[in-house]
Each structure stands twice: as C-alpha cells, then as structure tokens.
Design goal:
The protein is built from eight helices and seven strands, in the order βααββββββαααααα. The two termini are about 20 Å apart. Helices cover about 50% and strands about 20% of the residues. The chain is of the alpha+beta class. A hairpin with a 2-residue loop joins strand 3 (about 50-60) and strand 4 (about 60-75). It has a seven-stranded antiparallel beta sheet. Helix 4 (about 160-190) runs antiparallel to helix 6 (about 210-235), helix 5 (about 195-205) crosses helix 7 (about 235-260) and helix 7 runs antiparallel to helix 8 (about 270-285).
Length: about 300
C-alpha cells in the first residue's frame, strides 16, 4: 500500500499576524486543533528550533504524549511564511511513530491561503500500516480539515472554537440518535418481533384484516430503516428535521386515534414522539453554520 501524505488547504480572510499567532501560540493552537489536547513550548535557544511537548486525549483516561520541534521561515519575496515541523512519540500505543510536515501561509488579494502537508511512519509493522491506511489516516486527515475550518470561522467571524465544536458534536449526536431510533423502530418491533400491538393498531386504523395489517407494518418497518440510513448519508439534515416536524405529530395523532388507551402506557407514543419532536426543533435551529471538513481542499 503506497502511503499518501495528508494535505489540507483553506483560504482565510484575516491578517497574517492574527493567523500566525493563532497557529504558533500554543494556548491558541490547542483551542482549535482537534489533534492536540495540550501543547507546551519548552525553553528555546536563539538559534535552535522551537521544541515542544504535546498530549492528545484518546478517551478512557488515556492519552498520547509526544515531542516536536518547529522552525518558522519568513519569505520577503512574496510575504509568505512557512513553519516546518518534526514530531513523534515514544509511546508504544501510538499508531504514529515519527513524522514531518509543514504549514504554509501565502497571502492572496483578499485572504491568506493556509495549507499543510505532512506524513509519518507507523508502529505495529504491517498491521499498523494496514490500520493506518484503512482507518487512522482518513480520520486524522478529516480532523485536520475540520480543525482548519474551525480556525477559519474563528478568525473570520469571531466564534470561539469551543462553541463551534459544541454545536458540531451536538449535531452529530442528534444525527446518530435519530439513525438509531428509526432503524430500531423499523427493525425490532415491526420486522423481527412483528409486535401484536403494532399490527392491531394498524388494523383498527385502516379497518383491514390482520394479514393485511401485518404486511403494512412490515413495509413501514422497512421504510423506517431506510429513513434511518438516510440520516447518515444525506447531507441536508435541516430538510430531514423539517420532515420530522411534520411526521411526529401525524404519527402521534394516528396512534392515539387507533387506540386511545395507549396514553396510559409507560413511554407511550405521546411522550416518546413529543420528545423526538422537541429534539427535532433543537436540531433544526442549531443546524445553521456548522463547521465541516468538506469546506477544505484535500489535494493540491
């Protein structure tokens, strides 16, 4: 498997010094870059590279600690700047062993082209290379691009990285929740269990036979599963949320009309659907202007 260097590029409408400070000041850098939880500069000799230590939290109380050194270069000819980087870690659990890369700052007419390219060697032999190719390299490339978009929005619009990430991860929690709800509701009670209550409510609501009701319940179950996967694959989540704002009241009213006694059941369709309706409203208004890795250029 041929290793491909990670490349990310974006145009930021800001001043060079602000961008330089946001990327070279460790306390600012760690705010927007998903790849690092903390960055600490070490004492620097005048003619030596800037050495630093970093940590990346990976969950369950674990973190990857590493070292790095960077050198900033100013190019008077075109007012561009470059920051070269050498990094690595001695921790055995890290997929990354050692790598090199650079940041480039290129002034344009109304913006600054900010780009990075880096590559690294992996641990764990052939297994590590395979895992890196299949999972880790796409993931860290995505994290780099998302971080660049968060930086861009921070410098252009003034919205803090923490607020952007809160909105981003809340959005994806809602997305995964609705994926789970629709797939589970379609698969378990309607297809696997063919729950008698589902069949009886459909039978009463449409005044049809039991076998016909069972067929309709199965069809609805398959449609719900498809809608669940659409939540993962379709990019316009605002449209899906708008559909649900119509759908949940209709589902609630039809269930109550078919069997008013269900209102006395625990976790009945009224309380369940009202909760999902409220979550849809939150997601609908929170959806605006979410950072995205797709806004960055990923190839030269």
């Amino acid at each position: 498997m041929k290793r491909k260097a990670i490349y990310v590029e974006t145009a930021i409408n800001t001043e060079m010094e602000k961008l330089w400070d946001a990327t070279q000041n460790p306390k600012l850098h760690e705010q927007w870059d998903l790849r690092f939880s903390s960055i600490t500069y070490l004492p620097k000799d005048e003619h030596e590279p800037q050495h630093f230590e970093y940590k990346t939290n990976i969950g369950f109380g674990l973190n990857i600690a590493g070292w790095g050194k960077s050198v900033g270069t100013f190019h008077a000819k075109d007012d561009s700047r470059t920051s070269s980087l050498h990094f690595g870690t001695d921790q055995a659990i890290s997929i990354i062993r050692e790598g090199k890369g650079y940041w480039k700052y290129k002034p344009e007419l109304n913006s600054i082209i900010f780009l990075t390219q880096y590559d690294y060697e992996t641990n764990f032999g052939a297994i590590g290379k395979f895992f890196d190719h299949l999972v880790f390299r796409p993931l860290i490339g995505w994290a780099t691009a998302l971080s660049f978009d968060v930086l861009k929005r921070w410098l252009e619009k003034g919205e803090s990285p923490s607020a952007q990430y809160s909105r981003f991860f809340s959005h994806w929690i809602i997305t995964l929740l609705f994926f789970f709800v629709w797939v589970y509701q379609g698969l378990v009670p309607k297809l696997i269990m063919m729950h008698p209550e589902e069949v009886s409510m459909t039978k009463r609501l449409l005044a049809i036979t039991t076998s016909e009701a069972a067929g309709i319940v199965a069809t609805i179950g398959m449609a719900e599963i498809v809608f669940g996967f659409i939540w993962l694959l379709y990019s316009n989540k605002k449209r899906l949320l708008g559909i649900q704002l119509i759908l949940f009241p209709l589902l609630t009213l039809s269930a109550i009309f078919a069997d008013p006694a269900i209102l006395s059941h625990p976790f009945n369709p009224l309380t369940f659907n009202v909760t999902l309706f409220g979550l849809s409203i939150i997601g609908f208004f929170m959806r605006k202007d979410i950072p995205s890795a797709k806004s960055c250029k990923r190839t030269r």
